[in-house]
Specification:
With about 400 residues, this protein is of the alpha+beta class. The protein has 9 helices and 17 strands. The chain folds into 2 domains: about 110 residues, 3-layer Sandwich (Rieske Iron-sulfur Protein); about 200 residues, Alpha-Beta Complex (Naphthalene 1,2-dioxygenase Alpha Subunit, Chain A, domain 1), CATH 3.90.380.
Length: about 400
């Protein structure tokens, strides 16, 4: 059997099995997907199963699980995952559901002082997922504690970032993201030693793909992001390189015109590095070595959240770090109305999917990364088994 490349797969199967409009597997000849891909509820449900249930999803930074018993709950669509620092020092992940009557075990984040105890009927589990006790189970004929073990979820850590995957057969994280760790560490050598010191969540009335596609091109930057274009990045050097599991956004800074104080001791201090990790995580290191995440979390067919997390040298941002956080927040907030206006426009009877602006040299203004995201979505919807093609 001959394995098809993603382009061949899209060309041979997708354009006939899905109504993709004038989308083309070759970026230089492609149009955007039709609007229904961004608001149809049935298609959204398919994406949750075919994409989000089968990819590595960011849960937290290791600093959130630094002490024994610390936990965080990570929801992926209607699925809920419990990530836990066990009593033996190991990080583990489980489906966040009691094996008795399906009550969720924990919410939010915190620190366990003992066993995992279901709030409903007080079934108790150890930190490795085994059932410790179930009240009155000794009076139940044939009760088998071993069958009540919490269901495991795969967990891997890269650069201090904890990922989970609902698919037991998915390729390892390192295979999907080959080359990413080296690139990230060239900008931030020890990201696992940083502190998650600041968070902010933006509720966005737009489909998650609108959010990640907006992030994945700088064609709109000169007109929509004056501080980014004039005081942060040198757009003449901006480029987006495509890799099998991620995109690398690289640029020089603005030098003396930089809009905030940079850290001269940081490696590659005069450069910007950002990585879009399929399907919905962005890792950024702004000039000066300031690292943050932008997590695009789907919450409905026409809703998502942009969850921002900043990582600093101490548990709280110092004044210089806070100034960078505030500076970048302006850019984040400029994107919100753009995405929400696009979401409204996708319903227009006058829109059928415009031409993607992709040039041959793949310049900083090219939309080739947007095309790659749309192609990955189509491949997943047509055949979830082709996700690693």
């Amino acid at each position: 059997m001959r394995w098809l490349s993603m382009n061949e797969y899209v060309a041979e199967h997708l354009c006939t099995s899905l109504d993709v409009g004038a989308f083309h597997p070759d970026a230089e000849h492609a149009y955007n997907l039709p609007g229904a891909f961004y608001f149809d509820a049935a298609r959204y449900d398919q994406e949750l199963q075919a994409i989000f249930h089968r990819t590595w999803q960011y849960a937290c930074h290791v600093s959130a699980l630094a002490v024994e018993g610390s936990y965080i709950v990570c929801d992926i669509g209607q699925q809920s995952v419990l990530v836990l620092h066990g009593q033996d020092g190991q990080l583990r992940a489980f489906h966040n559901v009691c094996q008795h009557r399906a009550h969720r075990l924990l919410e939010g984040c915190g620190q366990l002082r003992g066993a995992i105890t279901c709030p409903y009927h007080a079934w108790r589990y150890d930190h490795a997922g085994s059932l410790l006790s179930a009240r009155h189970s000794c009076d139940v004929a044939g009760f088998e504690p071993g069958r009540a073990r919490l269901a495991d979820v795969r967990l891997e850590v890269m650069c201090g970032l904890v990922f989970v995957n609902l698919d037991p057969d998915a390729a390892p994280l390192a295979t999907q993201l080959a080359g990413l760790e080296a690139q990230l560490r060239s900008f931030s050598p020890a990201p696992e030693s940083l502190y998650h010191s600041y968070s902010h969540t933006y509720a966005l009335q737009a489909n998650w793909k609108v959010s990640v596609e907006n992030y994945s091109e700088c064609y709109h930057c000169p007109g929509c992001h004056p501080s980014l274009s004039q005081q942060t990045l040198d757009l003449s050097s901006y480029r987006i390189d495509l890799h099998p599991g991620f995109h690398a956004h690289l640029s020089a800074d603005q030098g003396e015109r930089q809009g905030y104080a940079t850290n001269p001791g940081a490696p590659r201090t005069g450069e910007f590095g950002a990585w879009y990790v399929w399907p919905n995580l962005c890792i950024e290191v702004y000039p000066g070595g300031y690292m943050n995440l932008l997590h695009h979390v789907p919450t409905g067919p026409q809703r998502c959240e942009q969850r921002v997390q900043w990582f600093t040298q101490g548990p709280h941002p110092d004044p210089q770090e806070q100034a960078v956080i505030d500076f970048v927040a302006v850019v984040r907030e400029e994107d919100l109305p753009l995405c929400e206006s696009v979401q409204k426009g996708l319903h227009s009877l006058g829109y059928s999917g415009g031409r993607l602006m992709v040039d041959a040299p793949r310049s900083g203004f090219s939309e080739h990364a947007v095309h790659d995201i749309q192609k990955r979505v189509l491949a997943a919807l047509a055949d979830p088994g082709a996700r690693d093609a």
